[in-house]
Amino acid sequence: MIGRLHSAKVRRRLTTTLATTLLLLITIIALSPFYVATIMGTHYTEDLYKGIVLLPGKFLLENLRTVMEVDFFRWYGNSIYVTVLATTLSVFVSAMAGYGIAAYQFKLKRLIFGFVLATMMIPGHISLVGLVIQLRYMGMINTRMALIVTAIASSFGVFWMTQYIKSGVPLAMLQFLWTWNSYLFPLVILHDARLCTIQSVSPQ
User: Fold this and answer.
1) For 89, phi and psi rounded to 5 degrees?
2) SS3 state at 57
3) Which tens digits make up the pLDDT trace of 96-124?
4) Which end of the chain is more exposed for a tag (fewer CB within 10 A), N or C?
5) Which run of H or of E encompasses 109?
6) φ, ψ for residue 128 (rounded to 5)?
7) Do 81 and 51 share a structural domain?
8) What mean pLDDT do residues 120-132 have?
9) Among the listed ranges 26-30, 75-79, 191-195, which one has the minimum average pLDDT value?
10) Do 81 and 110 belong to one domain?
11) Residue numbers of the domain that contains 49
12) Spatial distance between the Cα atoms of 13 and 16, rounded to a whole number of angstroms
């Protein structure tokens, strides 16, 4: 009896040790990109093409001075402004549309929801030219409002909120990340450097 209890304790300890080791390994893998990105900020750009750097460099202060010489905080503020407004309005509009589709029965409900799903299958880059032309007619080229308005009506947001009402999966975090990380559309729409978001100027 005592031997069995001892064997059970050993197995539990072994299982706990293996699980902890696996979780620690996964945590290291998940955090490594953030560590590497931070370390890259202490090196010259030329050094980054030589391979992955794991040790801090000597150019952190010089790189910080370079950042301060441009409108970094203005661009960062533009990103926050566009992202917060776009996320708030997109979640609001998507929630209303998603609730209507999920909670009510009406004619053409399946057709409308099918149309929403169909638009999700069209890559956004295909409609970019037409969208730019439309925004030009509306006088919204080179304005931050163009980035906000085009993010409000999200077919994926409507789909997601429809499922959220049925299951409970949040949309706000996804919409925030998409808007914050948007690169191509701000690059095409914004010509004034003072209006740029941090993503559209980061490659420069």
Assistant:
1) -70, -40
2) coil
3) 888 888 888 888 888 988 888 888 888 77
4) N
5) helix 109-120
6) -65, -45
7) no
8) 82
9) 191-195
10) yes
11) 2-68
12) 5
Residues 6 and 77 occupy one common structural domain: no
Q: What is the mean pLDDT of the chain?
A: 82
In the structure encoding, which two tokens stand for residue 129, read together?
Answer: 């030219």
Residues 135, 196 within the same domain: yes
The number of beta carbons lying within 10 Å of the beta carbon of residue 22 is: 10
Taking residue 101's Cβ as centre, other Cβ atoms within 10 Å add up to: 19
Query: Six-digit token pair at 194?
Result: 């003072």
pLDDT at 67 over 90: no
Half-sphere exposure of residue 83, counting CA atoms within 13 Å on the CB side? Answer: 22
Domain total of the chain: 2
Average pLDDT over residues 54-66: 82
Chain length of the chain: 204
3-state secondary structure of 121: coil
CA–CA distance, 199 with 182 (Å, rounded to integer): 7
Q: In the structure encoding, which two tokens stand for residue 148, read together? A: 């906000």
b/e for 70-97, b at 16 or more Cβ within 10 A? eeeeebeebbeebbebbbebbbebbbeb
Those residues whose C-beta lies under 8 Å from the C-beta of residue 19, and which sit 6 or more positions away, are none
Task: List C-alpha distances in Å: 134 to 118, 150, 177.
Answer: 21, 11, 25
